[in-house]
Design brief:
There is one protein chain. By secondary structure, this protein is of the alpha+beta class. The chain has seven helices and 20 strands. Strand 19 and strand 20 form a beta hairpin. Helix 1 runs parallel beside helix 2, helix 1 packs across helix 6 and helix 3 packs antiparallel against helix 4. The longest helix is centred in the first third of the chain and has 20 residues. The two termini are 36 Å apart.
Length: 388
């Protein structure tokens, strides 16, 4: 956290999800002297998801239980608590977007959209509009201020100057780092964002929760889709996208099996389809291509190769965002990941501008269209984009 900001009271709106990370975030902020308000974000929930008891319920997943836990944390910390209804924003920007992308044969990343449009979109705007100096969440990431960059003089010369850019850094806990989902943040959001637990490892956060006596200290971590929790994505999508049986093809175009709709599959996936004609190799098949118009998927024993036998090393991203408003340098080596928790892979920037970039990895990658490719320079998240 930024110690210099605690010298005078700063107002912070903390997104209290009802989990241990956001609870500890609120506790740390209050201890540091901030004027803290806990905010529970209520989002759209489908009426066909099971309740906490496992029975179908119109109440959706566990949002009522989570809200109750968030209220208990706020009461324990003696901080104001409010519920912010963002159902419309979540349905439009996350759920509708996700369904539309799957229909196009792409694999979207709803957690990225949730951060961009809900947590650091609607919530961020409401908080700032009502007088908050900062917004805080329980993400495992960090924000740092200060950089050395280039600035242009009147004569067109470039000189070194301190430009005070905010940097998005990976969380200290490599296993929990969530900077991958935050690549859409800009200087506007970073300048008013705090990630209190980003400098801690998960076991330390658990210990702090017990030390603060928080009612969520023993609560299990949430998993799955942002706000909705753990769910079977195919089962979820089947409520919005009609199933249509199609063919599974091998690399030569021969029909070797069947599936229940090409739109449900992601590149690299090796489950969910049926192989009816076994080959000589007793190894798994992976999805290496799909055609939503013909409703076919192509499988191979070699997941890192394209259908024509080439290697998947070159990736193009669209809708790019660079956290410091400066694109990565052409010809420079960085590291990147194309899926969450994947070890960082070495890559080189072929080209990059404000909204697009072309990246060449030193080793083959399974880059699914619609997913996020995020670029790093050391522990700094430079930004990213949506894989074409």
């Amino acid at each position: 956290m930024r110690k210099k900001d605690t010298q005078k009271t700063k107002k912070v709106y903390v997104g209290l999800s009802g989990g241990v990370d956001s609870s500890v975030s609120a506790a740390l902020l209050k201890k540091a002297g901030y004027d803290v308000t806990g905010v529970f974000i209520k989002v759209w929930q489908p009426d066909f998801l099971p309740s906490a008891s496992g029975r179908p319920s119109r109440d959706g997943c566990t949002w009522k239980e989570d809200r109750l836990d968030a209220m208990r944390v706020a009461a324990h910390l003696d901080i104001p608590f409010v519920t912010l209804d963002l159902e419309k924003e979540y349905k439009k920007e996350v759920v509708d977007y996700m369904i539309a992308e799957y229909k196009k044969g792409r694999t979207p990343n709803p957690d990225v959209m949730c951060n961009q449009h809900v947590k650091f979109g609607a919530f961020f705007k409401r908080a700032v509009a009502t007088g908050a100096d900062f917004v805080a969440t329980g993400h495992y990431a960090r924000v740092a201020l200060g950089d050395r960059g280039l600035t242009q003089t009147k004569r067109g010369l470039m000189q070194k100057k301190s430009i005070g850019k905010y940097k998005l850094l990976a969380g200290v806990d490599i296993e929990k780092d969530q900077s991958y989902f935050l690549w859409t943040l800009t200087q506007k959001e970073l300048s008013k964002t705090l990630f209190p637990v980003g400098g801690y490892k998960k076991p330390e956060v658990r210990k702090l929760a017990k030390k603060f006596g928080l009612p969520t200290a023993e609560k299990k971590d949430s998993q799955g889709l942002c706000f909705m929790g753990k769910l079977n994505m195919k089962d979820f999508l089947k409520h919005f996208i009609k199933e249509k049986q199609g063919d599974v093809l091998d690399e030569r175009g021969n029909v070797v099996g069947e599936h229940d709709s090409a739109v449900f599959f992601t590149l690299g996936e090796r489950h969910g389809f049926t192989i009816t004609k076994k080959g000589s190799r007793d190894t798994p098949y992976y999805v290496v291509a799909k055609d939503v118009v013909k409703n076919t998927i192509t499988v191979s024993h070699e997941p890192l190769r394209t259908v024509d036998g080439g290697e998947n090393k070159r990736v193009i991203i669209l809708h790019a965002n660079w956290t410091k408003s400066v694109s990565p340098k052409k010809g420079e080596y960085y590291t990147a990941r194309v899926r969450y928790r994947q070890p960082l892979q070495v890559c080189i920037i072929i080209r990059a501008d404000a909204k697009t970039a072309e990246i060449l990895f030193t080793k083959p990658e399974i880059a699914s269209p619609g997913q996020s490719l995020v670029i790093y320079d050391g522990d700094e998240c430079l930004g990213g984009g949506v894989i074409e």
